[in-house]
Amino acid sequence: MNPPADDLDRLMAVMAAAFDPEYGEAWTRRQVEDALLLGNCTYELIDDCGNPPAIGCAAAGFSLSRHGYEEEELLLFAVDPKHRRKGLGARMLVSLAEAAKSRGAHRLLLEMRRGNPAESLYRTFGFQPIGERPNYYRTLHGDRIDAITFAFVLE
Ligand SMILES: CC(C)(COP(=O)(O)OP(=O)(O)OC[C@H]1O[C@@H](n2cnc3c(N)ncnc32)[C@H](O)[C@@H]1OP(=O)(O)O)[C@@H](O)C(=O)NCCC(=O)NCCS
What we know:
six-stranded mixed β-sheet; binds coenzyme A; globular; alpha+beta; Aminopeptidase
């Protein structure tokens, strides 16, 4: 997939605002472009009302996912801090679940650093922890943080 440059600009603006540099989780524009070129990755942008942003309007959030055999992995998921806790994240998860199902997935997977407040959103949505990678993430200050893998079964 070769996304319009405008979409990448909007996605990267949310990326820059949403991820705490301490954890090194944000991707570069090049990484996003490369992932989308692979052909099995896709993205969604939403505006502050939860709709696809109109041309020229800023995005409030995005998700980036990769589909594989019977599974879809949420690679990146972010909402601009200005628009958080209004249900936009949950709305994107609903939309991703529907889209993943239509692509043939039976479950959604994601990996999260231990302690990310997003965990309560994932658990409320129905994700269950299925594994851990000890010391998987490294912070800017050199501390190590476990990764937790969550799965959500698509009915
Ligand atoms: C995770 C994220 C996308 C959620 O977006 P959102 O639009 O705020 O999500 P929603 O409004 O649908 O859900 C918010 C719920 O998430 C949880 N939550 C998210 N951030 C939280 C925080 N800082 N403190 C406490 N709870 C938080 C709460 O359960 C909250 O529900 P509540 O508002 O009813 O208490 C957003 O916090 C974000 O961009 N975080 C930084 C990037 C990131 O860590 N992405 C996930 C990588 S695994």
